[in-house]
Amino acid sequence: MPLAGGKTMKKMRVKRLLVDNFRNCQKGDWFFSGGINVLYGHNGEGKTNVIESLYFSALGCSHRTFQEDDLINSAADGMGVCVVAEKEDGGETKIVIKKSARRKSKEITVDNSKVKPRELIGQIKAAIFSPEDLKLAKSEPALRRRFIDMQIAQVNSAYCFSLARYNKILQQRNKLLAAIKERKMSVNLLEVWDDQLAKEASLILPARLKTLLKISRLTAEVYGELSGRREKAGMVYCRREDGSSEFVGEDAENSYCWYKKGLAARIKKDTENASTGLGPHRDDIFFTLDGLPLKNFASQGQQRSFVLALKIAETMIIRDECGEYPILLLDDALSELDARRRQKLIDFLSGRIQTFITLTEKNLFKDFGRAVFYRVEKGVVSEA
After folding, report:
1. DSSP 3-state assignment of 32?
2. Angstrom distance (rounded) from CA 287 to CA 301
3. 93 and 146 together in one domain
4. Cα separation, 18 vs 77, whole angstroms
5. 128: nearest Cα among 159, 110, 154, 106
6. Domain match, 101 and 179 both
7. How far is residue 268 CA from its own chain's centroid?
8. What is the mean pLDDT of residues 275-279?
9. pTM for this one?
10. What per-residue confidence (pLDDT) applies to 266?
């Protein structure tokens, strides 16, 4: 069973975190253990900001905001984070990200070499559970698409490039549609863009479906253990077009033909809207419990357990694809779990995954085994 054990894996661990004016963490240089790290302190002291800085260092984006200037301390005009990660062979990887309020883009270096944001993904693999992740269960499809895309990107760098190309082509097609609507360009020019868009879509869709098949199976198994097997968790990938939903097959060649035909069939409608209404950018993932939509029929506790199971499944897929577990960031994840579920989770994490857990009180739980505790107060981390 997923939470009952597993073979020993190689692992990269975050050894050191340095922050400079990252939210309320003005200055920090902290060392962490390779096991379970518990960050405790009152609400508003900066526990979540530490978690966010780790995630930002690994993936180059925040899990809480799309506005990166929000990450800069209000008294500063820029911020920086640095992570030193230790490999199993003793080598190290150093990631530095700097963002100035005066510049739109951020500067990223890996081992002192500048890289693009998409080239950062996969250097340090990470999975996160936070209160914001509950929106996965009940919010807009864009969040679920982003989740599956980030999952794939951490283990498949080619997917990042396909996704970037797809979005760039999509923007160009939409600009052309607007020009056609205003009778400034010929509709015949769409054929070239449609062909390119269909090619990238036919790479994105099978990758999503393949990953979803794995993560759905693992999520169902983990949720079953956490819930005592009272309900069965599931996921369905759906193509969305004009309010309808339909499952699409996995074959890349067939999906290319399907997209080409679909885009051609809706030229009139897309021109009227000056927007492309068909493609991976419109799709959704439906979460279910016993075949019913999670967002409509599940309690808050069931939704929390589902998303937590989803995140644990994410670590297992990264393990299977890359031979190593990611670091796991659990922000306010355990407060609503009963003692049995909590212990099952801790037993699984111990000695296997470097984990960062936030709590409001150090003595709230006494079943963390060999965990190392850190007090967080006014943006400062100190080992307890």
Report:
1. coil
2. 15
3. no
4. 18
5. 154
6. no
7. 36
8. 95
9. 0.84
10. 94
